Every structure is written in C-alpha cells, then in structure tokens.
C-alpha cells in the first residue's frame, strides 16, 4: 500500500477522486410514508451567537454578533491533515472554528487569521458553543443560581445576562 501525503488544500482533490472512483449510485427509491414523517424539515443548521468581548478588526471596529453552522465530517477531518495542526495540535480548534463560523459582524470571510486574533475568552466561548450545537443540538444550558439555588435555563447564543 502506498502512503500519500496531502496538504490542507489537497483534501478536496483526494475526496473528489475517491468519490469518482466509486461505482455509480443506484437509482433513488422513494422513502416509505412512515420514514418521510420522521424526517425533520425544521432542522436548524446555523446558529447565531454573541461574543463576550468581540473581535476587533484592523480598523478598530468591534464585531460581536455572528453565526456558526453545524460541522460536517469533512470539517472535522480537514484539520487533521493541516500542517499547522501537525506542528502544533493546539491549533486544531483555530482551524476548526474558522471553517464553521459563517459570519462575524460584517466579516463573511472568517479564516484562521481572524480566529487567531480573537481574545481567549471569545475563543473559549466559541469552542463551548461549537460543542453544544454539534453534540447537543441546541444552545440552551441549565444553570443554578448560587444565591437562591433556583434552577433555570439560559440561551447561550445571544444577549447579555440580565437582558431580555
């Protein structure tokens, strides 16, 4: 078996080559009515968020509102072959976040350089946000008041504490 080294730019080419090498797809068979009812047409794939501090761009503008999409298997595999991640495994979250953040304020081209320049608290927030939407499917968290010990739920995606 021959080993193949791929850079981050080559993943798409390798995956496309593998896809074209597969046998032709079979004709689609319509799903039975019961299976169609189980499909979720209301599946949310993009989630809004508000950063605790905000990203400051080169012009000094602060960007706090943004959106993140659900990750695909390709999103999770691509950083594994990125040379920056191979040199420093801690860089994995930077590359991964840069792939799934679709908008940050007026910035629509969110790349690793943008994530690198974010404050650590914002990166930690985004890592937790990523985990929540991709494993739990929502942005709600159950919390307990330290004073009265009352339990309630908060939405982590937006709004500052105490705002409605």
Describe this structure in words.
It is a single chain. With 164 residues, the chain is of the alpha+beta class. It has 7 helices and 5 strands. It has helices spanning 11-21, 33-38, 73-77, 83-87, 92-100, 112-116, 120-136, and strands spanning 46-56, 62-69, 101-104, 140-144, 151-155. The strands form 2 sheets. It has a 3-stranded antiparallel beta sheet with strand order 1-2-3. It has a two-stranded antiparallel ribbon with strand order 4-5. The longest helix is centred in the C-terminal third of the chain and has 17 residues, at 120-136. It is globular and about 60 Å long. Residues 160-164 have low confidence and may be disordered.
Widest sheet, order of strands: 1-2-3
- For the secondary structure, the number of strands is 5
> What helical percentage do the residues reach?
25-40%
What gyration radius follows from the Cα positions, in whole Å?
Answer: 20 Å
The ordered string of helix (H) and strand (E) elements is HHEEHHHEHHEE
